């Protein structure tokens, strides 16, 4: 009986601590690129007219989401420069307004319906120039 109690208590503790774990912050280096709105899925995922991506050699560009306190013009001074960003991956689900334009999206396995767009965006909490070698 005691073993069962400790097993249940342990399982409950482990599931609670993992469920409320904070997203893991990571550091990534690449070239900061500013883009303007276009009829692309990338542009639609940002939900803004001008947006930033991190370009990395031989890897897919990372769509960036700025911290709420971050001032976008501050990022402009680092455009086309090698930067180091810190943040975490977030998922964004966009349910379009039927009267607005939206891209024809692929069907995602976890999407509620075929009109829902799911995006993975890197939420930036810190940015700085990368050290040059």
Give an overview of the whole structure:
The chain is α+β, with helices and mostly antiparallel strands. The protein has one domain: OB fold (Dihydrolipoamide Acetyltransferase, E2P). 22% of the residues lie in helices and 36% in strands. It has a 5-stranded mixed β-barrel. The longest helix is centred in the first third of the chain and has 18 residues, at 2-19.
Briefly summarize what is shown.
This protein is 22% helix and 36% strand.
Q: What's the SSE blueprint?
A:
Elements: H1 2-19, E1 26-36, H2 41-46, E2 50-55, E3 62-66, H3 72-76, E4 82-94, E5 117-129
Parallel strand pairs: 3-5
Antiparallel strand pairs: 1-2, 1-4, 2-3, 4-5
CATH class category name: Mainly Beta
* Major β-sheet annotation: 5 strands, mixed, barrel
Indicate the radius of gyration in whole angstroms: 20 Å
Q: How many helix segments?
A: 3
What structural class do the secondary elements suggest? alpha+beta
Q: H/E element string? A: HEHEEHEE
Q: Low-confidence segments, ≥5 residues, pLDDT <50?
A: 4-9, 11-19
What is the end-to-end distance? 62 Å
Relative helix content:
10-25%
Strand order of the largest sheet: 1-2-3-5-4
Q: What is the CATH topology assignment?
A: OB fold (Dihydrolipoamide Acetyltransferase, E2P)
Number of strands: 5
By CATH, the architecture is named Beta Barrel
Mean pLDDT: 76
How many distinct folded domains?
A: 1
- Mass-distribution shape: globular
Beta-strand percent range: 35-45%
